[in-house]
Design brief:
Order of helices and strands: EEHEEEHEEEEEEHHHHHHH
Distance between the termini: 36 Å
Radius of gyration: 22 Å
Strand content: 25-35%
Largest sheet: 8 strands, mixed
Helix content: 25-40%
Shape: globular
Number of helices: 9
Number of strands: 11
Structural class: alpha+beta
């Protein structure tokens, strides 16, 4: 389940961050704003030339080896950014069309022109199987005058067929680096493009559609202010938490323990966390307690202890916790 930044044998890593080092302390930290070209070069995302190669299988019998064609699938292959050698990233169907990293960056460059956003991070995950670039929009929001929320555009793409090209608009509380992706009334916050022969054309269409998301900051700020002015009690928050994580199947001792552990963590965030000090007792505080738990506090099942931080960071990049956060937003928006 762990999902790590790609690291190379020369000691470098496929990651770049503008101005601030990331939690994993890998890659390059720049000073000042980055262009798309800077981000691609410094994160070692240039010239991968992702392509499809025919597959064969080998059957071994007493009579020897027989090569068999695999007509319905192809290998997704890149040119390794350090060695220059071909490297297989995954197995995909015949209708899969690669989206090059350069196309990924070009897409975001158009958004820069429209919005004034600047490139913040770029990187390669899982040995090149997934890549991402992020931009920071120029405006920030101050909820209640003190709770600062930045707005980012995140675009991710897989080269192994595991996910589509995905772009979303994400608000983040700067005080705790807590991603708060939320879908709400008439707000267009994400766009997904499948890897098919028409993918390039749909990315152009997505660019036009994503222009609507620049209204997202204004709508999110209005919704957040309403939540900030709405009282939230601990019992009411418990009711919402139980609805978000309903008990499924028999009420076993283990499920009861997990349920109470989850609630204890969220309640402590709501009632005691320093990040909630200025917004304590509000629906906004309750929502932030839930999202902080969903992204950072929930158990990282399947990850070894030394990789749990990486697994939790992956939730933010891949949007694993989006469903819970969107449901929470709908329940708590007033």
């Amino acid at each position: 389940m762990a999902h790590e930044i790609e690291q190379f044998s020369d000691g470098t890593a496929a990651f770049v961050s503008a101005n601030t080092s990331a939690w994993h302390r890998l890659g390059t930290v720049t000073t000042g704003a980055m262009t798309a070209e800077d981000a691609m070069r410094l994160a070692a995302l240039n010239d991968w030339n992702v392509r499809l190669v025919g597959l064969t299988a080998t059957e071994l019998t007493e009579d020897g080896a027989t090569m068999l064609e695999v007509p319905a699938h192809r290998a997704s292959v890149r040119t390794h950014p350090k060695t220059g050698r071909p490297e297989t990233l995954g197995v995909v169907g015949t209708d899969y069309t690669p989206v090059q990293n350069e196309e990924h960056a070009e897409f975001l460059n158009h958004l820069v022109d429209e919005s004034g956003a600047i490139f913040e991070t770029a990187g390669s995950l899982r040995g090149g199987r997934q890549v991402f670039l992020t931009m920071k929009l120029p405006q920030s929001m101050a909820i209640g005058g003190t709770d600062e929320v930045q707005l980012y555009i995140v675009a991710s793409n897989s080269h192994d067929g595991s996910s589509a090209f995905r772009v979303c608009t994400t608000p983040i509380r700067a005080v705790c680096a807590n991603t708060l992706r939320a879908g709400f009334r008439q707000a267009r916050s994400s766009y997904t493009v499948r890897h098919t022969s028409g993918a390039r054309g749909r990315i152009a269409e997505a660019r036009q559609a994503l222009g609507l998301t620049f209204k997202y900051a204004e709508e999110f700020e209005k919704a957040a202010h309403r939540m900030l002015n709405a009282e939230m009690t601990t019992p009411k928050l418990r009711t919402i938490v139980d609805e978000l994580w309903p008990m499924a199947g028999p009420d076993s001792a283990r499920k009861k323990t997990n349920r109470e552990t989850r609630w204890t963590t969220i309640r402590k965030l709501f009632e005691e966390a320093e990040t909630q000090a200025s917004i304590r007792g509000t629906a906004w505080a309750g929502y932030n307690a839930i999202t902080e738990y969903a992204n950072h506090g929930a158990p990282a099942r399947g990850a070894s202890p030394d990789l749990k931080d990486a697994a939790r960071a992956e939730r933010v990049i891949s949007g694993t916790a989006d469903g819970v956060m969107e449901h929470a937003f709908r329940l708590m928006t007033v």
